[in-house]
Structures are given as structure tokens and as C-alpha cells.
Amino acid sequence: MTDGTDPIALIVVDAQCGFEAPVWRGRRNNPSCEENIAALVTVWREGGWPVVFVRHDSRTPAAPLAPGQPGNDFKSILDGKPDLLVAKQVNSAFTDNLTSSVTRRGSFWTPPTRSIAGTSRGNG
Q: Mean per-residue pLDDT for 65-94?
């Protein structure tokens, strides 16, 4: 645990419009997910703690999550800019390569002081 003086990074994963596309539709286990993420982001910003957005950039040009597609945009609950934006092209935001990339790029990144929020949908 932190003593309250270390910055705690909030990592928001895949909160993108494309996850509302019909291909991803199905019963959700947390219909309040977006509201909860928005509340977390507000608390983090009020506390002056860093917020990281992780965005999935599909390699398939016509896919809902491809750069340039409307689905690649973050949901409207994520207003403002993150302290760090990380783009990924793999399903998991927690691969060794992605984690080390964030570690190198974010001077505030102090692993174990992080909290994570995001969405997850089945990929197959």
C-alpha cells in the first residue's frame, strides 16, 4: 500500500466506442461500468494523480477499433487528456512488452501503486 504521498496511476483500459459495435454485443455483467470509470477518473484528477488511457488500435483497417474509425474514439465518459496515452495492438493491456513500454514512458509509474479500470469482452 502507499502512504498517500506516492502518485497512484489509474489505468483505464479499452473504454472505446467500438466496443458497442454489434460484433461485441451481448449480456454485460456490469452495466454501470462507464459510470464507475467516470467517477474514478474524476476522483483521480481531483487528487492530482496520473491517469493513463490504454487504447486498442486494431490492425484490421475496417474493424470498429481501427485508427480512423469512429469506434477507435474513447467513450464520452473520458473527457480531457490522459497524462499518458498507450496504444496497443494486442488483446491484453498487460503483456510484458506493453507494461515495460508504460514503465519506460511514464515517470510517475511506480508498480505497485496503480489501480485499473476498463472493459473486457470475449474475443473468440
A: 86
Give the C-alpha distances (Å, rounded to integers) separating 108 from 7, 63, 72, 96, 114.
Answer: 7, 33, 26, 18, 10
Cβ(46)–Cβ(80) under 8 Å?
A: no
| Per-residue pLDDT, 112 | 47
pLDDT tier at 123, thresholds 50, 70, 90: very low
Asked whether the CA dihedral 79, 81, 84, 89 is positive or negative, the reply is positive
pLDDT on residue 41:
94
Separation of alpha carbons 93 and 87, rounded Å = 9
